[in-house]
Structures are given as structure tokens and as C-alpha cells.
Amino acid sequence: MKRIIVDYKKLTPEILGLLVEKYPDGYDDDQVIAFKNAKNETVEAVEVKTEDTIYLVKVSTRLESTMANFDEDDYEDSEYTDPIVDIPEKDDTEEDEDK
Description:
Number of strands: 4
Distance between the termini: 45 Å
Number of helices: 3
Helix content: 25-40%
Radius of gyration: 15 Å
Largest sheet: 4 strands, mixed
Shape: globular
Structural class: alpha+beta
Order of helices and strands: EHEEEHH
């Protein structure tokens, strides 16, 4: 099984969805894993698994905020594997015009 460390900048809607599913009310301190990276720096992360990969997502204030505001419907299927920082935010006026 692969283990991948994911920073907020590389977080995809797919991984974010898994995080929100696993931690619907956010994560607690006892769910945070601390480890040393290759540069001997302490990294804190939360874990989420797929069938073949364990993702260690680095903990940050931006991660907490993004998890709290996540809505799967905000993303197109084609965007689901793109990093969320690369996906342009949807304009609310566009949705209003569709109604």
C-alpha cells in the first residue's frame, strides 16, 4: 500500500471528500499523527485511506476551513482529481442565472 503525504496545495476534491466523510465534525488532537519528514521537521497530519493508498494530509488552518465548507456538488467530475487550489472558484451569480 502506498503512503502519500499531501499538503493543502495538492489536496484534490476526491481526498477532501474522503476527509470530510471520515471526519464529518472535524478531527481531534488524538486523530492527528505527528512524524518527522526527510528534513527532520515535525509534521502533523490526519490519515485517510483508499483501497490502495494511505494519504497523510498535513494539518493546517486552511484545511479545517476547507473541510468545513466542502460541498461535493461544487466540483465537476473532470475537476475531481485536480488540486483544489488550481480549480477556479464558482461565481454565485452564474448559479443564480441558471435558475
